[in-house]
Amino acid sequence: MFSGNAVNANCSFWAQPDLQQSLLSRRYQHTAKWLLRKRAGNHPGRIATCRPARAFISQERLFKRGMMAKSSRPGEPLVLMFRDDGLIPNNPRLPFLVYLGAIDVAGADHPERVIESTFSANGWGDMWRNGIFPYVHYHSMIHEALGIARGRAKVRFGGERGEVLELAPGDVAVLPAGTGHQRLWATPELCVIGAYPKRGSYDLCRGGKAEHADALETIRRCRCPDSDPVLGTDSSLTTPWRAATVAL
What we know:
Layout: H1 17-40, H2 59-64, E1 78-80, E2 96-99, H3 111-121, E3 125-130, E4 144-150, E5 153-157, E6 163-167, E7 172-175, E8 181-186, E9 191-196, H4 209-221, H5 238-247
Antiparallel strand pairs: 1-2, 2-7, 3-9, 4-7, 4-9, 5-6, 5-8
């Protein structure tokens, strides 16, 4: 989560790109350099694995593309903002979050149940077990959490101009309404647990121009959840998401 001395929930941090870059660059410059060195050491042609201390993304690259990132420390997510590309609206107010290794499923006989129990205890339900669609899509009327129980998957978030992450067991992605996502590759045993907050209705949008205008309105009406699917009410999601709501 964002610590109190970095972001005040009542400030306009999320509405000030210069402030974002200044604060994040100063605080995480060392981490960003380490991540770049780590990425450079990966096998050519492969995306860096999205795991604790193995995040793949540079702050400079994200800021140039209109997004922002926060390096992950224990209990903290990666935080990204994606722009509307004309087909995939993404979310103009709420950031996309990725908790790396958030749920300990190592050695569990039934890792699906471990993730489901965590989501349920934190107020997220209507769960399913499956994979991720191989085509780009988004949900305009509800937020979504995706927890990796088994296998690995390379997923593009944010549409064609978004970012590709390789997710592994225990990782959890929290997608605000409108966030594009698409499976590019997965191991055969992949099992993803999907879950949703109490408010909202499931829908499936494929990224067509005809649905784009209507989606912008339904995305705007999606309320911030009462709790985070990983950490509950005192969590990262309620801090940056509510801060974004106040600021904008």
